[in-house]
Write a structure and sequence with these properties.
Blueprint (H helix, E strand, L loop, with lengths): L2 H16 L2 H8 L4 E7 L1 E2 L11 E3 L1 H14 L1 E3 L4 H6 L3 E9 L3 H13 L4 E4 L1 H5 L5 H11 L3 E6 L2 E5 L6 H12 L4 H15 L16 H9 L3 E4 L12 H19 L5 E3 L10 H9 L4 E3 L19 E2 L6 H9 L1 H4 L1
Parallel strand pairs: 1-5, 1-12, 2-3, 4-5, 5-6, 6-9, 10-11
Antiparallel strand pairs: 7-8
Helix pairs in contact: 1-13, 2-13, 3-5, 3-13, 7-8, 7-9, 11-12
Length: about 325
Amino acid sequence: MPSAVLAKRSVLAEALYRSSADWLIGSTCRWSGLLVLNYHRIGTPNAECDPDLYSASQEEFDRQIDHLKRHFEVIGGDEVASALSTRGRRILVTFDDGYRDNYLAAFPVLKRHGVPATFFLATGYLDRPMVPWWDEIHMLVARSSGGLIPDLDGGDYEFRPKIDDRLEVARRVVRRYKLIPTTATGEYLDNLARGLGVSRVAPSEASDLWMTWDMVREMKAAGMSFGGHSASHPILAMCTFERQKWEIEQCRDRIASELGEAPTLFSYPVGGPNRFTAETTELVGAAGFQFAFTFSRGWVNNHLTSPLRLSRAAVESEIGFSLFSAMTYLPNIFC
């Protein structure tokens, strides 16, 4: 969410919360539909990894789940179809990627409250752990003492740590990466590391970054649901048709092999409106997925345009509890 928009909504939400108006609104404004909340990581940001992936601390997450349980019907992934065909205020809690803190920090909270959640797995990271491209970009910038960043905003950019904000520079590089054809991303990261005077991040640094399949099976046995998120988390819109097909089907097949049943839910990696195409959606449907989720803001009010383009509301670390509460009570305004 853009910072200016976030600031305005936070101010309004805080005013409602302090006046207890949010509780009154929540009791009287009975919206109907499905609000899908999207999380990534739970915990305290690592000094080098992408901090924007952290949705909440464990304490904040606990408070959010307690709120959802007390005021709404929180459903599992196998209840999406019925939630979209009947009236009610349903919440679907989702996580993208498959970070291990989902198991270590989020899962205990969900179990304690008896609340289900759905986890979308980038299966290749579970099979062969490695640092994902967004975290690697942040790590390369964090470790550099300065240098040239290739092809950034129209030309090579001289990174000067004493002047530049490392976080903002890393965010700019991430945005640039998302526009590169998948066939050229490896070369871009090689050139980025070379220009910054550092080495590419070794796979060994991801030894405890991702969940294991045993963890996934334990969570499934406790009532959690799992869906697909591609095999290697590329920007699908930047892939060839063949690569998209492989990413989607390989992810489906790995989950089916490990969990004994094919997943029916999918979330598009970096699922903004330009990060997947109509071709992607067709491939997802052809692979047997019944519902697919984007990273576009909003909620589903039972008037579906497509079950393969369902909106989600992102939960971000900058969101205080008052804004989180307002998002759930008035999703048409705050999501």
